[in-house]
Structure prediction request, 372 residues.
Amino acid sequence: MSQAACVSEADGFLSRRAFLRMPWLIYKGDTNWVPPLLMQVKQTLDTRKNPFYRRAAIKLFIAEKDGRPAGRVAAVVNDAHNEFHGEQTGFFGFFECINDQHVADALLSAAKEWLAGRGMNNLRGPASPSTNHECALLVDGFDRPPMVMMPYNPPYYAQLLERFGLARAKDIYAYKLDADAFGPRLYRLADAFARRSKLEVRPVNVKDFASEIEVIRHVYNNAWEKNWGFVPMNDEEFDHLARDMKQILEPSMALLGFVDGRPAGFSVSLPNINEVLKALNGRLLPFGFIKLLRGMKKIRSARNLLMGVIPEFRRLGLDVLMYARTVEAVKQLGYTWGEMSWILEGNIDMRKVLEKIGAQVYKTYRFYDLPI
Prediction:
């Protein structure tokens, strides 16, 4: 007879290992799944070395059913989020589960109770571990693998969360743009914007990376301030994220934008290393690193993961100009298409620009909420 799900804290060597390896159980045989680098996941969860945890706490849970691993979840208290938004919201993330409502309920209940014990009155997610990391649940667009740093999950996850009582809080979109879709007319429009408003767009100078990051940090914390779910990163967090991105950065796809010489915007696109990671099966050593270096030359897609313009400089065409320069770089690198993500459902101005240049929504992701 089948036993009830048993949930425990993943605080020992074996339970921690089961937590890390859970995706390999869930996605066995799924050709669209991209195994994460175990080294990277461990770094993300490392509460001693990851600066995110200077202002946050996390608890990992693992579920077993019939003596076998059946699911996992993490509960997160993000003090930086709650201080910035004036909330007492707790987050769940790293959610993986077999198609069993009892297991899902047990996992989410454990996360909810842990968060309630720390004064939280709302449960939100997925966030692994925050909106500045991999987050949200895929609810439409399961026919393609995810892009770099974007989540992927089975279609039944939405049903598991909703039957538990979680409800849609916000949808976010991924737009797809073929490199050839950005036609001559839009290049002329971008050049016209540049002349008329004294716009300048240039690649990041990797030889002076520290100074360039200061410019990006300034724009980031001013351009996203009013966005739903935004949490400003402190210097240590920002530098940590920038170092990770620098390892795969193509300088021609990391752009700074200026208006009359003043920092006004930036755009960062990354090669879609998920095309290569699929073959590494989560391990970079001993031979994965060689495969990664060789595979980087064969990548044919990119993800624009950050694009922002400070409010006072919006509607001058700087975003169109940055997209034009990005597409030019993408073509020179031999890429054939790109993804722009993630874009909030309510970011109408950005969505209009994307649709104007020929991009189309091809994936939808969702954040869920539940009062505690």
